[in-house]
Amino acid sequence: MKISNYKGDVHDIDVITISIVENYSGHFILFRCSICGNPVFEFRGRVVSELPGGAPVEIPIVVQCQHSNCKQRYLISTILSR
């Protein structure tokens, strides 16, 4: 996935795209890094797919694993509705 910083420099980062089906009536679920198992974020719903690489999204949400040896980045695609 290509991103640019505030200076306009373009960088290519490795991401894993996560697609989630929304479900606001359920409990929060902890998403863990698929590389190291470290907690990354919480969500309500169900993970539909976990695919390597970026997917085109209107407003990209990229979260990063905070484990010091991992730093895997995850791109959250548009939340799919039922």
Task: Report what the structure shows.
With 82 residues, this protein is mostly beta strands. It has one domain. The chain contains no helices and seven strands. The strands form two sheets. The protein has a five-stranded mixed sheet with strand order 4-5-3-7-6, with no helix packed on it. It has a two-stranded antiparallel ribbon with strand order 1-2. The radius of gyration is 13 Å and the shape is globular. The mean pLDDT is 81.
* Secondary-structure content class: mainly beta
Number of helices: 0
- Domains (count): 1
Tertiary shape: globular
Beta-strand content estimate: over 45%
Q: Which keywords apply here?
A:
82 residues, mainly beta, five-stranded mixed beta sheet, two-stranded antiparallel sheet, 7 strands
Task: Characterize this entry briefly.
The chain has 82 residues and is mainly β. The protein has strands spanning 2-4, 10-12, 15-22, 28-32, 39-52, 61-64, 73-76.
Secondary structure elements and their pairing?
Blueprint: E1 2-4, E2 10-12, E3 15-22, E4 28-32, E5 39-52, E6 61-64, E7 73-76
Parallel strand pairs: 3-7
Antiparallel strand pairs: 1-2, 3-5, 4-5, 6-7
